[in-house]
Amino acid sequence: MGAQQRVYKQRIKSAQGMKKIFKAKEMVAASRIAKAHARVLATTPYADALTRAIGSVATHSSEVSHPFLQADRHETGRVGILSITADRGMTGPYSHNVIRASEQLANTLRDQGKDPVMYVVGRKGDSYYRFRNRPPQRSWTPYKEPDLPDLGREIAGVVTEDLLAEDPAQHIDELYVVGTRFESRFLQKTRSVRLVPMGLVEAEDAGDHQAFPLYDFAPDPESVIAELLPRYVESRIINILLQAMASEHASTQRAMKTATDNAETQIHKFTRLANSARQAEITQEITEIVGGADALSGSGRTER
Amino acid sequence: MSALDVTFVTADRTVWTGRAAQVVVPAVDGSMGILPQMQPTLAILGDGAIRIVDESGAVEERIVHGGFVSVDSDVVTIGVDDAETAPAGTSRV
User: Fold this and answer.
1) C-alpha pair distances (Å), A12 with each of A17, A21, A45, A107, A231
2) Could you confirm whether domain A32-202+212-249 is CATH 3.40.1380.10?
3) Residues A137-171 pLDDT 10s
4) Fold for domain B4-85?
5) What is the reported pTM?
6) Between chains, do A219 and B29 touch, taking CB under 8 Å as contact?
7) Are A201 and B10 in contact (CB under 8 A)?
8) Residues of chain B positioned with their CB less than 8 A from the CB of A154
9) Do A218 and B44 touch (CB under 8 A)?
């Protein structure tokens, strides 16, 4: 076998090997999307319950005040950005989209004279900022998929503490979250949301609620709201983390599908090239034999 | 007698849902029993056991650490961080 052919055979082998890996990753990601999405949906009842509870406090007690609700929290100019990226590679543009959105948000905030403080989830985001010599304030990495709710609680604990801190070196005025929203298996959107300060939407018609003027708060409205709002932040963060995880799987699946297709094209191309190399070699051999025979017959000798 | 419509959820899943005759929750200022026709209440929970007695008298018990409960026209919503199954032997009335 000629050298040319050997090179092509080698390329085909390696492309076949890679194709197997991509295919496996694609199928793993595809099977995890549904599970991850189910986990997102499982957080909805809790979030609904919390939203209703906060709504009823707001409706039934005339003056609710909490640090998270103040529209103007300007103290130190520090603004927290929590960005949620992937731990692994091979996720297509997933992590990069989040990083780009975070950078855009940070630039906008800088233009407004604020000082962005990064909180990062995932190794991809962490290494991005470390490489550029801007280590994040806090990063959580690596994380495990089944522990996301616990991770969410930990993150919520840290940011709530920073939001309420008195120390100007620790205090943050606002909190933004940059994550990926899982719309469907085929559509995920990177988006930035402001968690704190949050806006309370007044109920349009308070008349209906007048039927229960004696809503009883235990121990009292202030402590109820003080307990509920951090929980709300926590539940939002957990929800966003789970959505991000589902999106990561969907993005991985898409990237790996493309990679598998590319490997196939590559195999196809090299098979063609190897075939023509083999054919060229055969043609050459025949030409040599025929040429040799012609030369022998031309010399007039009859036996070899 | 009417029954309570109970939804018991944690941050990442639904623990128990259905109709119940009575619910006992560990509010921060002391244990609180919830029966049908109770006035609308919103309470913060401390550490302790949540006991749900369903219409047939069977008891469901979970240990919780912090959370909230809202009662509004016989709809009871309990939201907690974490609900552990109570140790065996304590779940009888």
Assistant:
1) 9, 14, 52, 46, 55
2) yes
3) 999 988 888 888 889 999 999 999 999 888 888 89
4) ATP Synthase; domain 1 (2.60.15)
5) 0.85
6) yes
7) no
8) none
9) yes
